Amino acid sequence: MADFRNLQITGKLVFGRGCFDQLDEILGSKRLSDDAPFIFLVDDVFENNPDNDIVSRIPLSGTDHIIFVNVDDEPKTTYVDELTETVQRKFSLLPNGVIGIGGGSTMDLAKGVSLMLTNPGGAASYQGWDLIKNPAVYHVAVPTLSGTGAEVSRTTVLTGPERKLGLNSDYTVFDQMVLDPDLIKGVPKNQRFYTGMDCYIHCVESLEGTYINAYSRAFGDKAMELCREVFLQKDSWDDDSDEKLMMASYLGGMSISYSQVGVAHAVSYGLSYQLGTHHGVGNCVAFDQLEEFYPAGVAEFKRMVEKQGVDIPRGICAGLSDEQFDTMIDVALFLEPLWENALGGGWRETATREKLRALYERM
């Protein structure tokens, strides 16, 4: 008998413009102790921001506490540990829950802290698949960017001392999502494109991968359709675009939850680990050079780039040492499930160190 994966998905979801204002009601039933706090991890772009009132709308009560997090760099295991220790020093009781408000990196930090509050040791010791032993505290995703699928994934993507690798666990999955399209209005064009392309690229990788199945295809096809409507067919950005991209992010995340990503993500992890390249940007830099693996997807991606008037960084690997190239290659090749999804069981015959070196040199 086949061993089918028993997929853990988010318990509850609320979607719609203005639904962020229901957060107080949502959290109320989860306030197990009046003395224990809810911890709100909020992207520091919203701190003292006169153009955005999201902080003033956070429903604080009792000992609830806001921590502004900086995501200028990709989230690190050490930062998760630092945030966890900050919460543990400030509060003697285990928090009622952790709420992440921001983009994919902020949500990854929220997932990481919610896990480390209930699991001993540092986050780096849990980088891998199903190493988490204890359930996380209740945790909620409130995305203010769309595309990464972090709100629905079972992975907390973190850069550790040895590699960039997720904390992959059923316990990582958020208990609640609050998907309010109003919260992604006004995102700068380039940032919106890079995060949106994360969704588009992982849909290409899922739909063309060897792990594909009817479940993943159903979500991936619709997410791809929405990405095309937003980035190819529309002449200007509007409220409808916000809603479609938010749903594309959710559906794309669901697609890869029961399949896998592929070459672009593996290569991008190497860029992020060695150069600190942000995930969405790194995916675009990598995908731009992957015609050999995804010819139709890369051609369509280039049309999206032209349509949206976005520049993809080039030359970011110029001048790197042999040691630095080797580090990126090591990080990329460590992600064996991604390569197997992309190329099948004989992936090592194609994904050679020489081929990866040549790819990185073009980036």
Topology:
Elements: E1 12-15, H1 23-28, E2 38-43, E3 65-69, H2 77-90, E4 97-102, H3 104-116, E5 128-129, E6 139-143, E7 155-159, E8 164-168, E9 176-179, H4 189-207, H5 214-233, H6 239-257, H7 263-275, H8 279-287, H9 295-308, H10 322-334, H11 336-343, H12 347-350, H13 353-362
Parallel strand pairs: 1-9, 2-3, 2-4, 4-6, 5-8, 6-9
Antiparallel strand pairs: 7-8
Helix pairs in contact: 2-3, 4-5, 4-6, 4-8, 5-6, 7-8, 7-10, 10-13
- Biggest sheet, in brief? 6 strands, parallel
Radius of gyration: 20 Å
Number of strands: 9
Number of helices: 13
Mean pLDDT: 96
Describe this structure in words.
The chain is of the alpha/beta class and 363 residues long. It contains 13 helices and nine strands. It has a six-stranded parallel beta sheet with strand order 1-9-6-4-2-3, covered by helices on one side. A hairpin with a 4-residue loop joins strand 7 and strand 8. Helix 5 packs antiparallel against helix 6 (239-257). The longest helix has 20 residues, at 214-233. The chain is globular and about 60 Å long. The termini are far apart. 49% of the residues are buried.
Features:
alpha/beta; three-stranded mixed β-sheet; 13 helices; 9 strands; 12% strand
